[in-house]
Amino acid sequence: MTLEEPAPGSVRPGGRTARIRAAVLRTAGDLLAERGFATLDLAEIAAAAGVGKTTVYRRWGTPAGLVADLLDDMAEQSLPRTDTGSLRGDLTANARLVAKTLTDRRQSRLFAAVIAAATGDPVTSAALRRFYDVRLTEWAPCVEDAIARGEAPAGTDPRAVLSAVSAPLYYRLLASGDPIDEAAADTAARAALDAVAAGTFVTRQAADA
Amino acid sequence: MTLEEPAPGSVRPGGRTARIRAAVLRTAGDLLAERGFATLDLAEIAAAAGVGKTTVYRRWGTPAGLVADLLDDMAEQSLPRTDTGSLRGDLTANARLVAKTLTDRRQSRLFAAVIAAATGDPVTSAALRRFYDVRLTEWAPCVEDAIARGEAPAGTDPRAVLSAVSAPLYYRLLASGDPIDEAAADTAARAALDAVAAGTFVTRQAADA
User: Fold this and answer.
1) Distance from CA of B20 to the nearest CA of A (A)
2) Using an 8 Å Cβ cutoff, are B91 and B189 in contact?
3) ipTM
């Protein structure tokens, strides 16, 4: 039985479509993590996912279209922000979550593959920007709450703070190759907090107000 | 006349080999920047560089081998560190240099292409690590001099400081897509300085001593 032939009575509205999408995205993610973007093939994914080739071509069109949908799905599935009650706690939790993702065997290869794909393809690139936009926006309340609690200067830019936490870990993954561990995560969070405390992430508009 | 047939009398020891290498690496860099790593083809590079195909295959073997040599050449060619007399000045100069590289049309595409290639190829990955190692080591005296001048705490890790300056700019290029400009460069330098001042980049060994 394939995913396109569910057991009688098991089909609810959207169920079959959602199951097909989940199977295809899971397979695409596995293959991206395993072999990267260059050899991604829709017919192979369809066969491995147990879905008709025509369905996959009609719905996703190209490997880049499929990777874009995978990124949108990752953004939808992403965990809500942590709320520990302090900016230090929240940023440390964020840094450790990023470090965990970038050291997980499947996830780290998947991220490296989609980032690599985005460098050469505008559809993937736009989807990657959307993904980081969702993540950065989702965690912004950490900084907004810290401002409200008086832990961060008014006008501190949440996006700059959260980018500062993630950036050193991505730099290790993609550029220097230095190890990504809890110490690296905690240093990234502490360095971001130091810059917050110094007012370095206060936007010019706020500083001028 | 091809590069392999220099004008009589113009050949000095190493001259012909060096000219061939320069032409091949320049062409490889152009094609990488233009189309990325996936379609890099040694025969096409040889033809475009005016060098015999056999020479290119014998010397570089594979596209990954050629990209590795390009990265080694980029490391050799890289400019020495700036010495402005202050850590703030040096790190700002470093950040602006990185921002300039990552916004230059050819250079930004070239870096994105080799970083993308490194995610899927161990030879390229090792060469990329060597490249960043050279850059980070070359700029380390900024931090060592700052420690000697009392501008940074003893035990501050130069590699951590310089990675912190570059990382937010690479994160913009490869992940968030946020603009890379002088303001972003200056904020990256300031944030790194804030963390230096707070002692966040002091290594544990130094802190324990």
Assistant:
1) 28
2) yes
3) 0.90
